[in-house]
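Q: What does the predicted 3D structure of Nuclear-interacting partner of ALK-like look like?
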Amino acid sequence: MKPLYLSPQHCALYGWENRDVDLLTCVSCKATLDGMIGTEWDTDTYNSTCTKLRSSIINGHSKFCPWKETPCPESFLSLPVRTSQEWKASFEDVCRNLLSLEGNLPVLKREAFQELVSESE
């Protein structure tokens, strides 16, 4: 089992997404990392390998990749603590704000939407 600082959520803070078991790909520069960690090693080797992988998650991007210097804040790992009434009020505020635009939203062509969807798959 991998330590928490190597979880998919922590990897995502640095722009990595899981492409396969133990395979990470940067969403921007498309660099890849092999995240496999053997479980049969002694504790020192295991800890050393985890530390190296953590360093690779932070520094494994291409030279000009924006994730290298600007990861997401750790606060992104948790949702704000709110009551169901607070979530509902927040959602209603967003809806009111959208309605106040009175249809002045940008038009999204079907082709552009399909392109966005296919890129994310």
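A (community wiki): The structure tokens above were generated from the sequence. The CA atoms of residues 64 and 116 lie 23 Å apart. The chain has a mean pLDDT of 87.
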